[in-house]
Each structure stands twice: as C-alpha cells, then as structure tokens.
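# step 3/5: fold
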Amino acid sequence: MAELAEQTAKLALNDKAPAKAGKAKKGSGAPAPQIERPEFIEHRNRIFEELYQIQQDKVAKMPREPIVVTLPDGSTREGMSWETTPMDIANGISKSLAKRLVIAKVNGVLWDTLRPLEGNTSLELLDFETEEGKTVYWHSSAHVLGEACELHFGCHLCNGPPVENGFYYDISVPEEFGRAVSQTDYAPLEQLATKAIKEKQPFQRLELTKEDLLRMFGYNKYKVHLINDKVPDGTSTTVYRCGPLIDLCRGPHVPNTGNITAFAVMKNSASYFLGNPENDSLQRIYGISFPDKKMMAAHKLFLEEAAKRDHRKIGREQELFFFHELSPGSAFFLPHGTRIYNTLMSFIREQYWQRGFEEVVSPNMFNVNLWKQSGHWDNYKDCMFDLEVEKEKFALKPMNCPGHCLMFGMRDRSYRELPIRFADFGVLHRNEASGALTGLTRVRRFQQDDAHIFCMQSQVKDEMRGALDFMSMVYGTFGFTFALKLSTRPEKYLGEIAVWDQAEQQLRESLDEFGAGWELNPGDGAFYGPKVDITIRDALGREFQCATIQLDFQLPERFHLQFRTGTADEMSGFQRPVIIHRAVLGSVERMIAILTENFAGKWPLWLSPRQVMVVPVTGVVYEYAEKVKQQLHEAGYFVDVDVSADTLNKKIRNAEIAQYNFICVVGAQEMEEGSVNVRCRDDVGTKAKGQTVPVTAFVQQMDALKNAKSLESKLA
C-alpha cells in the first residue's frame, strides 16, 4: 500500500495546457481517428472479475432466514434474506410496476432493485416520476455516456453526476485523438450508447478496499486523486460495472442499461478538474435520457421554446443589456433594460412604504474585520473581492446583513422600536468562477431587494406572516405559482434546542395560517436558524428559487445586539433580537432574466420598456404624431414615433416585432378629432384595424391597466 501511495502521489493534476471546448486543431472537421480499445478496460475487468467472484461466494454463504417486507401502505410481503430483491417484491405486486421500477428505498436508504435484502425492512418502490428515481435514472445514464466516451475517445473519465436536467461526464481526451470534443462526436457517442442500451448490460455492484481501488484505477490520475481524497485508509467503497465500463461510484443504479429507452447527447463545454482553474482543463459532455421516447420528443420541443425565450437572446434583440469581456459577470443595462430594472425596484419600494420598511444605504466596502466578526470570512472569503487599502485588507460586500447589524447596534434600542425593518438595494459583488457566469442568472455584480427585520421572539410569527404575504403578492403580480418548504434544524447548529423548537413552531403556525400548503424539509435549515425556501414556477414549468425567509440567532450574538425589554431580568433588562433575512426578487438581475423568459419578451404594460409606438399615416400628420407622443410622455409612458420612410404596414409590423404594447396609428381624421387608432398587442381582434379613442380616454385606459399591473395589454 505504501509503494502504491508513493506512485500515485507523483501524478500531477495540472500538467496539461488548458483547451477550450470545440476549439480543435486544423482539420478538426474531419472524422474522429480510429481509437483502439484502451488496454485499461481489460485491466479493470480482470480485477473486477477476480474480486466480484469472491463477493458472490460470500453472499452465497450468508444464512437464509424468513424476512418481512413492509410497504408504505402498511401491507407486508414475505421474503428470504440474501435472496429476495426489491424487484421480486415489485413483480409480486404487478408486472407493470416492475417494468417502471427505477430504484428502491430500503429503510430510508436508496438500494439497487436487484440487490438482495438482508433482513426485515421497510420498502419503497420508486419510478422515474419521483425526484429520487429521476436522479438515479440520469446517474445510470451518465455511466452509459462514460462507456461511450471511453470507447470513442480512448479517454480517461473524471466524474459524471446527474444534474437538474440530465447528466454530464467530464473527460480527459488523449492527445492522440487530435482535437477537442465537437458536435461531430455526438452521433458516434449516441450510437455507442444505443448499442449499450440494446445489450441490456446489468449494473453490477462491487465493494473494494482502498488498496484494490488504487490498483484498479492506477492508470487514471483523476480517479486516484478522488480515491485518495475521499476514501480514508483502511476503509472501502463501491464500483459499478456495466458492459466494459467500471467506474468508482456509490450508486445505486437501474437494473440494466435496457431500462434507458431514449438517450441523447445535448452539448459540450470546457471545464476544470474539481472546478479549479489550477487543475487540468477537461471536456464536459452533457446528455439527457427518458424511459419513453415521447418524453424525449417533448423535452426537445421544450428546449426549442426555451431557446426562443433565452434572456440573452431577447436582451440583445430588445437592446436591454449586454456583457463585455472588460468587466466579466457585470451587466451593462441599456436605457430600455434600465427602465425594467427601475420599475421593479419602484414596485418593491411601493410595497416597502405600505409594509413599514425603512430603506437604508450602506457602504460597499468594509474592513475584513467585519466579515471575520460575522463569520463570513472563514466560510465565504473565496467568493469575495478583497483589496488592500493603506496596508489593511478590505472587501467588497457580498451581502448586506453585517452592515445592517452595525446600523442596529449604533445606539441603544428599545422594545418599543421593534420590529425594525431595514431594506437595502446596495450593490453586491461575489467572485463567481468565470466558467459559472451565465447571462444574468449568475453574475458578479448585482443588487437585491434585501431586507433584515430585527424583532422580538414574540413577533416572529407576525413578521413571517407579513413576509409570506409580501412574497405572495409579488409573485402573484408576475403570474408565478410557488411552493414552500420549511427547512429545520441541521445536525450542526448554533443556539439552544428550545429556542429552535419555538422558532420552528412559529414558522409552522405561520405557514399553516398562510394556507398555501407546504412541505417539511428536515435538517436543511441554516446553522444559524430555520428557514422557509420558496420555489417559483414560470410559464414553461421551470422551477427557480428566488425568495428566501430565514431566521437568524447567530448574528445578534456575534454583534452583541440587544434591546431594552422594559423589565428587569437576569440580563439586566436586555435581550437579543431575532433577525429575519428576507428577499422576494432576490437578485434583481436574475429576476429580470426569469421574467424575460417567462414573458418571452412580451412585457406587460406596467413593466414594459416599450409601451406605445405612434405611427403617422403620412408626413402631413408628423406634427400631430409628435404632439400625441408628448401627451403620453407627460402621462408617464415610454413612447416612440416612427417617422421613417417605411410603408404604414411595415411600420406597424416593426412595432409588433419590437413588442410595443400599443400601436397608435394617426391620420387626418385622428388629428381632427384629437384621437388615436389603437391596436393592442395582446388583442388579436384589433390587429387588422384598431379602435379609435380620444387621447385622454386612451391615457385613462392605460392608467387603469398600469395601476392594476395587468398581465395582458387589452383596453376595456
């Protein structure tokens, strides 16, 4: 073992120059070179066969005893230990269930469906429609992709996890392959995957010691690093085999590759091993799979629609924002994009005024001693931008809460002042990795509708109810549906259990009274307090987490925050406040991305950066068209006039493409009457010929739509 460890320690993870995905050498359009079947495949298989037989012999010698299997509905099935499998139980219930079965859960632990049960157990049978079933299905599909990659590229595999919509594999392509991964590789990979699926290769589980793992994967420096880093000396973990692929994996998996019906390679990109730019540059290949070909077809249609709605595409077309390499991860909001940005912030400010929030402005840069006191420096400093000022280290703020604690603590506070609700739109900076930056959804510079409520324990329930109502009103205005989860005390937590129990009970009562339905998410609270996670669903059914409502017992302790209780007690009349962290929009940048895609660039009137286009029929009425524009501008609307040389129909069509909510056509009759002929973007009946209304009446109708924040631009 010592000799093996010495050999593997010499394997460097940064001995290759970075290679961008798809940036191939000259002639990269040519077919991939013929790669011989890598020798390491046979090397792995020899070790697997040797040790798998030993494992099977051990299982054969285990004592067989009658066991009772309890299903979720309370019914029971009889079985035999070390023989009966979850698949046997499924077949005993119905053949259709067994066919759909992806994975089992044994005593709360995910379990291979063909792995024998070892004793009395509770059993859940999960198909693809469950979250855990989907995760396992895509994890197994990643192994099929890994098998195809090894055979096609002759590559070394790194890691291949399931992700939110599919799976990927990071691979190290050998130099003899001659180029980086490109789209020309997708078809050959899919052909190899289809072959593996048709062969119905079983997923076989084998437990190995660390020494045997290093012997099996000694050819692959990435696996060696993972083994040395993740598997303690003297312990073991598992590998799984399907066909020629054997990979380091905790599992579990589907019964065999034949359970995967539809498989597709979707895209590729560059990545770094372990996400560290100091390590080797790798190639990442993404895939998707489904148990039904109709689901694959529906998914591809979904992707086509999502591509049309991509906020980066719409942002360019509507001139809302752009990015530049001289300031990566920081959006340049153009005038029309800034209109949306400011409207969202005004919307939230109106609610702050009505709901008793006080807006504050706090510094962008703090001495790192603040972040050390708050605890962020130890856990978050790699995500912060720091700089030296007069020989002392400072950092740009990634969040507002420590600064708000300084504001609360700047003088004595009385219980009569509570709750205090500080709201802050201050600019935040987070040092996201360059490879993680994605349009407006992942940026380095952003603003939040961030607020912190300082209150007494007895006020938590009311404040939570107010926060939930605030969230519901905002999301309802956007037309979003949402789901709520209560995340409770984790294993590592700060404070007393009695305080946690009281806080969690208050949150439960607040959620129950809110009446929207919620799920319990045990053990997933922050270490400083329980929280409510809110997930929204957009027009395409995609889920996003934007809003958060968190209780915090830690920061008041760290910053020694207190308020006078008005009574003499053991703390000399002082108590610690509770802090409620809450945001509804979350990052304004990210919310604009979500709204752009949700509305597909067809902004509702109140949020629209292009509300009215005035189209004069002839040059004779240009002056009147400008007058109408001025009237609407003075009424508070974003208005343009098209005085180009285009035909009338062309002008109208251009305005429709630009997604103006209303197109006002004006001619001699409208000039004489002081009216406009209005075509509504969202009212098909007005497309051919609009309705003629006085300008003053048109303004009143728009005011009603704008004030109601209607999602449709239809006049009454």
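# step 4/5: annotate
The CA atoms of residues 462 and 533 lie 18 Å apart.
# step 5/5: archive (pending)
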